[in-house]
Amino acid sequence: MTTPVQDYTEHTIAATTRRADVARLRSDFPILHRQVRGKPLVYLDNAATTQKPDVVIDAVDAYYRRQNANVHRGLYMLSEQATDAFEAVRESAARFLNARDSSEIIFTSGTTGGINLVAAAFGSAQVRAGDEILISAMEHHSNIVPWQLLCERTGAVLRIIPITDDGELRLDAYTKLLSDRTRMVAIVHVSNALGTVNPIKQMIACARECNIPVLVDGAQSVAHMAVDVQDLDCDFFVLSGHKLFGPTGVGVLYGKAQHLEAMPPYQGGGDMIRSVTFEKTRYNKPPQKFEAGTPNIAGVIGLGAAIDYLRGLEWEAIGAYEHDLLTYATEKLAAIERVHLIGTAPHKTGVLSFVIDGIHPHDIGTILDFDGIAIRAGHHCTQPLMDRLGLSATARASFSFYNTREEVDLLATAIPKIFEVMG
After folding, report:
1. Are strands 273-276 and 351-356 parallel, antiparallel or unpaired?
2. Which CATH number characterizes residue 174's domain?
3. Among 59, 243, 264, 404, which is most exposed with the fewest C-beta within 10 angstroms?
4. Active-site residue numbers?
5. What is the pTM of this model?
6. pLDDT in tens, 315-324
């Protein structure tokens, strides 16, 4: 079941236990022990990409060293082993998301690839001139541009759910925007720029009353909370492996079976066909229908290792720890003169965006790097959101379960040094 970040004050983790658990988890991630510019790395850019545990690195290495072969096509042992390992990850991903069947799991290049697949394949079959696609004002460009392209091709209209000044979706406006012209709601689960956790299940229920399909961008949510696509009742759910402690260039699209069966192929090529003649091609069934060509086999196997790693963690304890860390960081940065927090919705996870009076976020990020602190600075691929907030960019610290209060303290201590440099 998807659980928004909640008030965990009744189940806080004892400080000694927390330190021991985080130290153990940090030991799984080799890059966290390196230095940057002669100082210990403080990695606070997890919303952009997460670091990789040894088990993921080892799985990718082992595939290339001992198992490298193409999948689904060879009748020799290496190919059979590679195919078995590849398809085992599909089963694992289905369990991870609680899909009804592994055939509802499509391997993609990432969240962007998954959204483009749905916009092109589902959209081309379902959307016509005058129809409407509904997204929110806090979407990543990956959940804006594919729908704009669809609207340009079909004559459909993109409608925008507004947000409040603190970064919450206006649910009253959302329900009013739903109509008999709405053909799709595509909504982010957790904002990459604000950390806002949207009430996805409630929004899906509202859309369901109007028989409107919903795509959920889960790129930022799956690393922070358990997701159950059957409980959500979403039609599509997309995620990226590299934000889930897995390799880059791989992701998952979950789609309800009835949609995947009805959708035309997104791309043509090998493995997505049953037979080909010059007169006609017969397509394979899902999921193969949407996986043309040789896939990112090593990436999928690495993603499987990441999912297995995460399934071994206690999600409730992880959620409590991350909530405590975000609360601590919020208090520390809010207390610094000239620092202004951006995105103060009551339900948040993982992300703390801020600006400093008179200092551009790019300068903030550059100066912090000299202390070994890695944050993000820019518009975070959310330019319409920045326009709504009246900003060109923000600095963003984003957290994972391997971050610590000590790292937050280093960030808070380093920020006043920026004033000294910039004046």
Report:
1. unpaired
2. 3.40.640.10
3. 264
4. 381
5. 0.94
6. 889 999 999 9
